[in-house]
Records
---
Amino acid sequence: MECKQRLKWLMLAMICPLIAGAPSSMSKSDNSCPKENLNIIGGSFVLKDGYSHGSLLKYICPNGYYPSIQSRLCQGEQWTPKPKIRKPAVCKKITCPNPRVFENGEVSPYKDKYYVNDTTTYSCHSDYILRGSAVRVCKPNGKWNGSTPICGPDHCPDPGVPPGSSRAGNVFNIDDKVTYRCERPLTLIGSKVRVCQDGGQWSGTEPQCYADFTYDTPEEASDAFSSSLKSDLGVSQQFEQEDQQGKKITMDQGGKLDIYIAVDASDSIDEEDFTKAKTTIKLLIEKISYYPVSPNYEILVFATNVSPISRIRNFKLNKNERSLERIFEDLDKFTYDNKGDKTGTNIAKAYSEIYESMVMEKNSNETAFSETQHIIILFSDGQANMGGNPKPKVDQIKHLVTRNDPNREKKLDLYVFGVGEDVNQEDINDFVSHKDEEKHFFKLPDLAAVQQMFDDMIDESTSVGLCGVVWEGLENKRRAFPWLAQINVARPPKGSNCMGSLVTSSYILTAAHCFLEGDTPEKITVKLDKDLIVKVKKYVLHPKYNITAKKHMGIKEYYEFDVALVQLEKSVKMTSTLRPICIPCTKETNAALKLSESEGTCKKHGKRGACVEDAKKAEGIEVKNAVEVVTDNFLCSGGTEPKTDDVACKGESGGATHVNKKGRVIQVGVISWGVKDICKGNNNRFTSVSDSRDFHSNLFSEKIRSFLKEHLENDNIGNPLTFL
Ligand SMILES: *[C@@H]1O[C@H](CO)[C@@H](O)[C@H](O)[C@H]1NC(C)=O
Ligand SMILES: *[C@@H]1O[C@H](CO)[C@@H](O)[C@H](O)[C@H]1NC(C)=O
Ligand SMILES: *[C@@H]1O[C@H](CO)[C@@H](O)[C@H](O)[C@H]1NC(C)=O
Ligand SMILES: *[C@@H]1O[C@H](CO)[C@@H](O)[C@H](O)[C@H]1NC(C)=O
């Protein structure tokens, strides 16, 4: 009822201007309109307000028809528009536009008019390929469904002719081939031959013509390598099924992944380069560790012979040792002198060793082998000068994995990084995979460019906000401590300086003793990264922090619960030089270490005993029982047993005490106080003496953890942490 009335009002509102415009002289007393000649052929009508002035007559037609006149209005005793006796209103059939012009094909049935529910089918003359809808139905709104069909000359689009190349093959239908050549002296990189596939795409990668001096920029290489690698590392959110277009199946997270890395260490590589090469491998492995997969690794160094650093079989067998730390250690242990005869560049031998390892894997479990994704990455700076042509070895590897089944080609990725100008690009182009739209050969001027490339490799979407991601091998020292914050509190005449650590994008963890009563947020300056100064919104001390709490017991200054959180006004943007450190007992940290939540990272760290006893040697402390000073809420470091620790100096208060686990850094304490300040007067590096001890607020302590949890879980400026 209500609805109808509303409809009426709506109608009136529309009609009102017309009524107002009608000349009043024409109106009669009755004002009603005639009842004759109003019918519609093939339909009916309804009246809003009978035959009286202002009533609206609306015509109704059955499905698939439309009225020749939509409606009439009673106005000045007449219906407008006027009904014509000769040409009454009629219900007409709805038609769809005529697909008369259809080049290079047939429309069937071919008719003058197409009505609702009429179906047309389209076919192309031979040698032409239909794109668009082959069957279209006329819809009640007078439109065809689907999309416009086109008969094109070819199944695949013209693959073009890249600069510097020439192409043989001008027919682009299914299974047709095109072949490329580069003008002399350029080398073809990419696919020499491409085949038009079912899905209308060309196989392989577009060829490019490289001169000797042509290099991939680190950005180009990093984009191409990561987009290719990503499909193996299961970054893609949905698990694509193999479709007609021959798209690859993305590995699920539990997928098995074996990675073989071979590094050229021949003559041309000096000691410095060799160290760089090791750093490069670490960087690569570390980058891969950010993805949600846990690959097995084999690492080989080759020159005349091949020296293994890590074997895939051992990696798989020693469950306890399959950590990245372990591989990094082995890499560090492997020195320049271990390399043996350095005169040759025996690429064939390197591939041959990888082949042997793969055969062993296959023999050990054939099912697992066939389910595994195999990645082989070779770094070489020169031309193979001994051991013969590596191509047959590469072919053996291909055959082992694919068993000549083209559908299995996706299980193998062969990458080569050619470093420097001696690289024989033509040979190497033959060793790599040529997968659809993926690049597998990269040519870079030097190892620094390779490092930069790996460095750029992780796109921000996958790594931003990851805690504890550091890189120690590179020039930029800030990258080793990206969480570092310098805190200055202005208190004329002399302010105080502390360190802190970024723990979320808007919180900095530091020591409570950095602040005194009356310090307001605007007096605090926080410096992050190089010159990034950020504003402070507020700071909170641990509620139990009380420096005078044990004065009466002979402890002049008491530092239990010496922790504070500084909240920034705005959350900071994460970069490779500005990232949070990991906080224990959080989901984020467990993810970093790839631990299950139940395994957790909430175990206590730190050695005690003698360490705690030494606290009594501190100035201003006169207690019998050291535990009065150093409660369980402290971690203790320093001394010379079992190993000589680094020491904390004044001005480092509030800084992070951290451990490096599997290449990710976790903060375990906040530097609080020490027995001796042995940094004074000394030069740069300070090492501990037997009784120089530092004490750190223990982040594993229940009461400190609950303080952090309270604030960091409810971070409403940055991204909050989830505590376990
Ligand atoms: C078109 O087909 C639909 C579904 O079969 C039917 O409901 C509708 O009445 C048909 N329309 C005409 C105009 O035949
Ligand atoms: C058009 O509609 C018909 C009938 O509903 C349907 O069979 C056909 O698949 C549709 N075509 C497209 C391309 O949607
Ligand atoms: C081989 O691997 C498959 C799948 O990965 C596994 O289910 C099977 O138990 C393995 N067989 C042996 C003997 O380890
Ligand atoms: C600190 O501890 C002392 C000694 O127990 C006490 O008198 C004082 O009120 C405490 N201060 C605060 C702020 O709790």
---
Amino acid sequence: MDHIKLFSGEKIPLEMHKVMIVQKLALQPIEKRIDFIKDAGFNTFLLRNRDIFMDMLTDSGVNAMSDKQQAAMFIADDSYAGSETFYRFESKLQSLFGMKYVLPAHQGRACENIISQVFVEEGSIIPMNYHFTTSKAHVTLNGGTVEELIIDEGLKVSSSFPFKGNMDIEKLKKLIEREGREKIPFVRVEAGTNLIGGQPISLGNLREVQKVCQENDILLVFDASLLGDNLHFIKIREEQCKNMSIREITKKIADCCDIIYFSARKLGCARGGGICIRDKENYDKMKGLITLYEGFLTYGGMSVREIEAITVGLEETMDEEIINQGPQFIEYMCHELQKAGIPVITPPGGLGCHLDAKQFVSHIPQEQYPAGALAAAIYIISGIRSMERGTISEQRKPDGTETLANMELVRLALPRRVFTLSQVKYVIDRISWLYQNRNLIEGLTFTSEPEVLRFFFGRLKPVSNWTEKLIKKFKQDFGDSL
Ligand SMILES: *Cc1c(COP(=O)(O)O)cnc(C)c1O
């Protein structure tokens, strides 16, 4: 169902589910929240869940399961080898993607580890529409480099372009011409490009990438972790797909690819991952590494209960009434924030609502991590946990200088079926207040900085006493209210 129209004329997203199990939340007072974020080194990844009101860090592994997923977990077949649970998982994936071979892995990055170990070598170049943190780290670890070939529109904050995740085909052709196809073991296309605002790719674009790959005998590897929302956008935004079912679109996408991998923490609404492979030759290259790093070929490091839940979750992704729920809540949130003048990524994408920190706190230089500072400020004034997706999420260059991110985003993820509309309204209200008081926010600086994936464990501190000023203003405006 599309947004429902109220008698007042207002349009709101409507939850097409009821809540059957709940978890109690705490909204800690602001005096405590400042202590918690200090203890966490101003890194929202290091906060404790008990100290968070709304956890909008990610939609990874925290989507609410359906009754049918829970029910399926009861019939999981617990055996080390030959579990029936695996065969159900395998056959669901075979029917959705039409690929014969399926390897289980414990999560998305585990798939990336295996694929990179097998195909990437010293000097390899991996073209991508856009990188994801873990995909890039695995390519780099194996001696390769990543070339980002996103269309120019993809990096524009405000846009009405429907498929900002598309790959620039001319850039791809030029890269192959310049570097030679021998250096390029595969092209990686990511659905619902995570780091640039959950922006979708179109089927038309993927078909063009496929054509170039075929002409040059290069594998096409598809990261389907965020495929769910992307399918919805293809259906409503791409003319040639208007009359196709979600299932048909899924199959058409898979038809373009040689290998599809996914994090089932997102696609499938449970916890795990998998690799689907068209050819036996490539399957054989990878399967040995599954047993080495993940587990036997019929569980791949996952609990069989989770595998059952993924199988049902994948089928539910095909449900035309469920698949639009995430995007509709995100759209509502983005539009309401826009009404308050707040810079957000447009058009609204999947995954969550993305604030543009470069504009929100335009006075903070990128070297002082505007998105990280904004994420910390949001937690302090609301108890909401968001995620920095900017320069902190990049890696320093070998000479120690910063890689300034193309975009400085704060992601407010909307895990599926988890938050109600009144909670979403609370988010909108507190962020609108913060925007009015944005000049009080200043930057952060590292106090401890790991070399790899520093955004997970890095610790920072404010460059001045700006958090105190922020708290003072909050108390003036809200009094005793939390
Ligand atoms: C989350 C994600 C991954 C990694 O998956 P994990 O299960 O977290 O390891 C890979 N690619 C994309 C696009 C993702 O969003």
